[in-house]
Design a protein that fits this description.
By secondary structure, this protein is of the alpha+beta class. The protein is built from four helices and two strands. α3 (51-61) crosses α4 (66-82).
Length: 91
């Protein structure tokens, strides 16, 4: 699975782009290719499940102990959050 999303240029690059081009864009397209485990976590993101439920489901599907699943899932979710692809709401 490939996720495609819009990312914002950093201010420094926007300034350079304005100097080089007359039509400067503020965003550009990025792509991320997910492996099977990433696709599985992505499919569990429905806006209703909390992170613990996603970790438990992931651990069950892949016969991992909770701690292994927790590390994998939280790193993946953090990566998606840093890219602005997901948001995590407080309970």
């Amino acid at each position: 699975m490939i996720l495609t999303y819009q990312a914002m240029y950093k201010p420094f690059f926007l300034k350079i782009q304005k100097i080089i081009r007359q039509n400067s864009k503020k965003t550009f397209t990025r792509k991320i290719q997910l492996d099977g485990l990433g696709v599985d976590v992505w499919s569990l993101l429905d806006g209703e499940k909390n992170v613990k439920a996603i970790i438990k489901k992931f651990a069950t599907r892949h016969t991992l102990n909770y701690k292994e699943a927790e590390i994998s899932v939280t790193l993946f979710l953090r990566s998606l959050g840093e890219k602005g692809l997901i948001g995590i709401k407080e309970p």
